[in-house]
Amino acid sequence: xxxxxxxxxxxxxxxxxxxxxxxxxxxxxxxxxxxxxxxxxxxxxxxxxxxxxxxxxxxxxxxxxxxxxxxxxxxxxxxxxxxxxxxxxxxxxxxxxxxxxxxxxxxxxxxxxxxxxxxxxxxxx
Length: 125
Known about the structure:
Elements (H helix, E strand, L loop, with lengths): L7 H12 L7 E3 L14 E9 L2 E8 L2 E2 L4 H19 L3 E8 L2 E2 L2 H18 L1
Parallel strand pairs: 3-5, 4-6
Antiparallel strand pairs: 1-2, 2-3
């Protein structure tokens, strides 16, 4: 849904920001339900772009996210998208804001997450 059919969503974002760099409507919204997601709304619900302080600010809003196994890859993919749009709008990449309504770690990953936290605590001391 982010790129849209034939890249139309991406083109819409670029066009809006080129026409008005201060636009507050350069937003890609997820469809409400998806057959690929068992009829539930997608986890990533919207991605918003704004040119502020001469850089491209991106805000991603999640309904739900597995912050242990999914967030790192999601952030890298979103940052790549931000870079593509920034290049097209000819501004530098700016900050990324992430909002997650339901952040979670699934039970099978809990032990590994605890081990990582314990290692980090030892290194911080």
